[in-house]
Amino acid sequence: MLPHQLELLSPARDADIGIEAVNHGADAVYIGGPGFGARANAANPVSEIERLVRHAHRYHARVFVTLNTILRDDELEPARRLVHQLYDIGVDALIVQDMGLLELDLPPIQLHASTQCDIRTPEKARFLQDVGFSQIVLARELTLPQIAAVDAALGPRDAPGRAVLEFFIHGALCVAYSGQCYISHAHTGRSANRGDCSQACRLPYEVRDMQGRILAHDKHVLSMKDNNQSANLRALIDAGVRSFKIEGRYKDMGYVKNITAHYRRLLDAILEERPDLAPSSSGRCTYTFTPDPQQNFNRDFTDYFVNGRQIDIGAFDSPKNPGQPIGWVVRTAADHLELETNDPTIELANGDGLCYLDLQNNLVGLQTNRVERLGPGVDGGTRWRIHPKDPMGSFKDLRRGTTVNRNRSMAWVRLLERPSAERRIALWVQLRAEGDALRLTLTDADGHSGSATLPGPFEPARDPLANEATLREGLTRLGDTVFEAVSVDVALPAPWFVPASRVNALRREAVAALMAAREAARPRPVRASAVEPPVPYPDDVLTYLGNVYNHKARDFYARHGVRVIEAAYESHEALGDVSLMITKHCVRYSLSLCPKQAKGVTGVQGTIRAEPLVLIHGDERLTLRFDCKPCEMHVVGRIKRHVVRDTERAAREAPLRFYRTRPAPVR
Predict the structure, then answer these.
(1) Where are the alpha helices (DSSP H) in 24-63?
(2) Is the pLDDT of residue 606 over 80?
(3) Is the pLDDT assigned to residue 81 strictly greater than 70?
(4) Whether residue 369 has pLDDT greater than 70
(5) 5-173+225-281+289-295: what fold?
(6) Is the pLDDT of residue 214 over 90?
(7) Where is the Peptidase U32 collagenase domain (predicted)?
(8) Alpha-carbon separation of residue 79 from 123, 398, 527, 552 (angstroms)
């Protein structure tokens, strides 16, 4: 990727979704392989990834495969073999977390540093660039000045070996710094660093202070709103971001189509303003719909910390999709309700998802089974009768005047179930005579050309005008290709008649030659060279937060000057109370209990301190500790005994090899 190019990077749960991401404007797609990805339930066979690669490369779009879990020693060889398979099918890059992979005999495939690497500082980013990473996925928590500082630390953007900065611009937010959350493993044995997070952050908690006073009850205080950087793209470009990443390898086809198209339009508008910038792949998209991020599942939106700390980043009332307000309840009956929409253009349909807040501010979902239009409402909207799928008695606090939101529109779902985009590369068509033969030359928007010759001689046409129209139509019949003719230049010494079958054969041969030229010109990304001698890691001590789970990773860090290397949390050597999550989100700040908020407030300053708080969910208790200097929160707890026992039992049944700093327990 060149320093003046911008990349829209979309997720793919499977190859079909990845292909539609490309069709809707993605410059690159990331997808999970058959194993070792940070979304355990989004795996794909190599053959399916190859199908996606073939489609993406037609547009010079790239395909990245996630191999971003931490690996045991016994998993390194299978991972190495998988990397060779992925390289052989043309995958452009791997997204990785485990530094042990850099110690293996890998093909020269490009490496990208996953957000799981916890890249928050210029020093960490520079280190990763210097050890051979070509693209670096920054922590979601960074501000614009912090991103700019990382960009500056990497050196001139056009320098050889200079890494590309990648940043998440849309989708679900992990509340923890990526790679720094162990609650799931501590409580269930399911490791987030191994792609199996149980999402404890989306649970409701009671918040108490150290005197036992309840500060919040049944609130999802660790659940964030969804990321949306639509308004910040220009600022992110100026800060140095070149790859714009959409979260969502668990998301469905409609989400990927819609969100990809949304950001494609925004980036294309910026590219029109900025002739110094260019897309990193070919083709322009047209859509059968108007992209709208509100139509997909979301927990409301935030731009998180990009513009500094905000107080409204949390989805504390519910981790569900609140939808958009469409009207209010007019009356309820035994088997239905009636509502009036607040806009007469709103159309309801059978199967729509509606919701409302009960008196305790809990979100209650209501799926429509049948809807009936009743006519105009009294306030300018439309009145509807709704027959819910579930009994009316199950809907708590549903009464006249209740505001109703819609969080799923079946009309929208059906719209995106159909073909919804075309992506075409502009083509200039030129037909010339060479003696008594015809020479067809096709030149695409990237400057690649392909030609074919059709030998003559040809008879004169009986109807010259109709003949030329037919000839032009045959030359531009490109429907099954990636091209769209924008100019046709026919220059013949006489109106020759050429049978349609021969025109079609000539066109197909020229298109094949052009595609071959495009493929020959497509640069394959290569692995960047590491700086020699090995550069030192920014710290000389790595705690369990370094996620070192195999001996190759240990050797990597030792080779880069780290003196003390603790084992990963998953090795079960940190059995006492430790930080199970480190996060930039602060519960005290969100509850307006931060000492910095009280600074300068008469009568309040000095009375609020950053004392610990306690989170309670059922039998689970977690302590919140606050590190005010870096403005971070630590969620503290310890591993459950059954998790340790289960792992020891599994190790006895099937030997597992992983990095330890002390001998394995003998039972």
Answers:
(1) 46-58
(2) no
(3) yes
(4) yes
(5) TIM Barrel (3.20.20)
(6) yes
(7) 404-518
(8) 28, 54, 17, 13
The one-letter amino acid at 300: D
Residue found under tokens 């045991």? 72
- Identical fold for domains 320-416 and 421-521, yes or no, is no
Instruction: Write out pLDDT tens, residues 303-344.
Output: 999 999 999 999 999 999 999 999 999 999 999 999 999 999
- Kindly give the pairing relationship between strand 632-637 and strand 620-627: antiparallel
Pair of tokens at residue 578: 């430790």
Q: How far is CA 255 from the centre of its chain?
A: 11
The residues near 100 (Cβ < 8 Å, ≥ 6 apart) are: 71, 76, 549, 550, 551, 552, 553, 554, 555, 556
Return the structure tokens found at 658. 């992983």
Please name the residue that has the structure tokens 């790859």. 243
Which are the contacts of 663, defined by CB distance < 8 A and separation ≥ 6? none
Residue 578 contacts residue 620 (beta carbons within 8 Å): no
Does residue 602 register a pLDDT over 60? Answer: no
Contact (CB, 8 A) for 100 and 550: yes
Q: What is the DSSP string of 492-552?
A: -SS-B---HHHHHHHHHHHHHHHHHHHHHHPPPP-PPPPPSSPPPPS-SEE-GGG---SHH
Q: What is the average pLDDT across 394-413?
A: 96
Asked if 497 and 458 count as a contact pair (C-beta separation under 8 A), the reply is yes
pLDDT confidence of 557, banded at 50, 70, 90? very high
pTM above 0.85, yes or no: yes
Order of strands across the sheet with 214-219?
214-219, 205-209, 613-617, 620-627, 632-637, 578-583
Q: Which CATH number fits domain 421-521: 1.10.287, 3.30.390, 2.60.40, 3.40.50?
A: 3.30.390
Question: Contact, 218 vs 615, CB < 8 A?
Answer: no
Residues contacting residue 433 through CB under 8 Å, at least 6 positions apart: 439, 491, 492, 493, 496
Q: How confident is the model at residue 654 (pLDDT cuts 50, 70, 90)?
A: confident
Measure the CA–CA gap between 143 and 163, rounded to whole angstroms: 19
From 2.40.10.10, 3.40.50.150, 3.10.180.10, 2.40.10.170, which CATH number describes the 320-416 domain? 2.40.10.170
Spatial distance between the Cα atoms of 195 and 662, rounded to a whole number of angstroms? 26
Enumerate the β-bridge partners of residue 28.
Answer: 9, 62
Distance CA 475, CA 427 (A): 11
- The span from the CA of 149 to the CA of 240, in Å, is 9
Residue of higher predicted confidence among 24 and 43: 24
pLDDT exceeding 90 applies to what percent of the chain? 91
Q: What's the chain's average pLDDT?
A: 95
Task: For the chain, give every domain's residue range.
Answer: 5-173+225-281+289-295, 180-188+195-220+536-667, 320-416, 421-521
Return the DSSP state at 583.
E
What is the C-alpha to C-alpha distance for residues 501 and 509, in angstroms, rounded to an integer?
A: 12
Q: Where are the beta strands (DSSP E) in 82-123?
A: 93-96, 110-113
Please compute the mean of the pLDDT values over residues 129-140 and round it to a whole number. Answer: 98
